[in-house]
Amino acid sequence: MRGRFVELSLCLVLGASASYPRVSLAQPAASDATRQEAHERFDRGLKLFNQGDNSGALAEFTRAYELVPHPLVLFNIGLVHSSMHHSVDAVTTFDRLLASPGQLGARELEVARARREEQAALIGELAISVDVAGADVEVDNLPVGKSPLPGPVRVSSGEHWVSAIAPGRYPERRRVVVAGKSKADVSLVLRELDRTLARLTVKANVPAADVLVDGVPVGKTPLPASLAFAPGAHTIEVRRPGYVAATQSVTLGEGVTGEVSLDLAVDQAALRSQGGSLALSISEPDAVVFVDTVPRGTYAAPLQLPPGKHSIRVERAGFFPFQREIEIPERGRLEVPIDLQPTPEKRASYRSAATTQRTLGFIGLATGAALAAGGTGFLIYNQGQKNDAKDAFDTADLNTPGGECYPGTDGRTAVSTPTCVEELRIRLDNLEEARGHDKFGWIGVGVGAAVLGTGAILLLTANDPDRYEPKSDSNVFARGRLLPVAYVGGAFTGLGVTGAF
Q: What are the percentages of helix, strand and coil residues in the chain, rounded to 5?
């Protein structure tokens, strides 16, 4: 089963960049905005599928196909149905694709045909007969028509619940197991009832729990629709290994509609002896985890759970909720990586903030480097000014006690005049002023270094603006691109180049 999952995921991811389908002239070309949304949904579908969120992936692929009906998206929809054991839907999807493949690549067509035959082998038939005409016939609590049905009902191999409901008759339910490529005959006899049927919706907090009405199994949770009952008293029970069974008695009047919610409590003794652990690796911090609709708070450590099926949901503000069905091994450990996908608003704000920080970082580097270089240049220039002022002062000397002025070029001939003394004082002031100008250069170097360091820190701590952007290799909706395509698994191995419209 694990090998099959890997093969399917590779087909999905690598097949994303394949094909150059023909665009019908009768169909208007999609706008760039529509193509972009389709691209984002397709990319998100790939990520969800590779994380095991098949339902989420199916929803994203389906919406992407509604926006831009690309045959490769339909191809991936068929693969997801195959992975979910929706054999009838998978065959229907592949038949639709093969009937109108456009210019889908030969390799994809080969895979589609193989998967179609594989899933067709897992389809069985239910030949349902009811002794009353006009009865509502349900399979797995979902309507399939009224009796007499025009023909057998196609279903995936496995266990199914067949029901027939008619006014004035007791409802009849039957559990049936059907194998692939086989037919199971189901004959339902509805006894007369002189009262109007009531309907009851039964809900539980855990999946895959057995639902029993008056001791008779009627299905497993979650039940997709309400159940029909004869008016009167009934006992509803929900039970599953690892939990304490929950029971509730109800009295239904004629024609009434009601709902019963039964919450199963974990059997702590069974949990200690048979339970397993769930370890989550979540891409975003402070995410809140729900297990079987029960909030478990911010995830911090592995969770102990009863063995079997569970539904997990992970939420964080600004991100799409992640939901997946898991199977906890008895006395084992299940590790689930979760890559939360941002909403368009979160992605836009994140990209804007990351881009702004990187821009400020580059501005800081450039500005800091300019200021530091300017300060260094000024210090070099001012050193020349200081040297000139010192040379001018060194050509003379001032004997302050005697008030005599000695020119330094002559051997100490005294010239004691006010003009000479004033000139020497001016030269000394010029030297001190030049020395004082160094502070401006050092300020420039210091400020420049600080701004340069701030810019470097901003760049080093900046997030990648493209972190949440859809990957270019998943854009099957781009115009006129040629992209490499690889196929891995079974007999399908190869590498080529194909295009996207």
A: 40, 30, 30
Residue the block writes with tokens 């994380």: 51
Q: Do 18 and 65 belong to one domain?
A: yes
Per-residue pLDDT tens digits for 349-366: 999 999 999 999 999 999
Could you tell me how far CA 222 lies from the centroid of its own chain?
25
Helices (H) and strands (E) in the chain, counts: 10, 27
pLDDT of residue 86: 94
C-alpha 356/C-alpha 60 separation (Å) is: 31
pTM listed for this prediction: 0.67
DSSP output for 124-185:
EEEEEEESSTT-EEEETTEEEEESSPSSPEEEESEEEEEEEE-TTB--EEEEEEE-TT-EEE
For position 88, what pLDDT does the model report? Answer: 96
H helices present in 437-465, as ranges = 438-461
What the block records as the tokens of 269 is 């003794």
Distance CA 452, CA 263 (A): 61
Query: Does residue 300 have a pLDDT over 50?
Result: yes
**Interior angle at CA 63, CA 53 and CA 464, nearest 5:** 65
Domain presence at residue 147: yes
- Tokens in use for 372? 């530091």
pLDDT reported for residue 493: 39
Six-digit token string for 161 = 């619940």
Residue 466 located in a structural domain: no
468 falls within a domain: no
Note if the bond before 222 is cis, omega within 30 degrees.
yes
Total number of domains in the chain: 4
Residues 81-125 pLDDT 10s: 999 999 999 999 999 999 999 888 888 899 999 999 999 999 999
Domain extent at residue 147: 123-265
Residue 397 scores a pLDDT above 70? no
Residue 9 — very low, low, confident or very high, per pLDDT cuts 50/70/90? very low
The DSSP symbol for 374 reads H
Pairing outcome for strands 308-315 and 494-500? unpaired
**What is the Rg, in whole angstroms, of the alpha carbon atoms belonging to the chain?**
39
- In this structure, is residue 467 part of a structural domain? no
Based on the domain organization, do 350 and 337 belong to the same domain? no
Q: Are 79 and 97 in contact (CB under 8 A)?
A: no
Neighbours of 432 (CB within 10 A): 12
Is-contact 325 310, C-beta < 8 A? yes
Q: Average the pLDDT over 442-462 and give the result.
A: 93
- What average pLDDT does the chain have? 84
Q: How far apart are the first and last CA of the chain?
A: 35
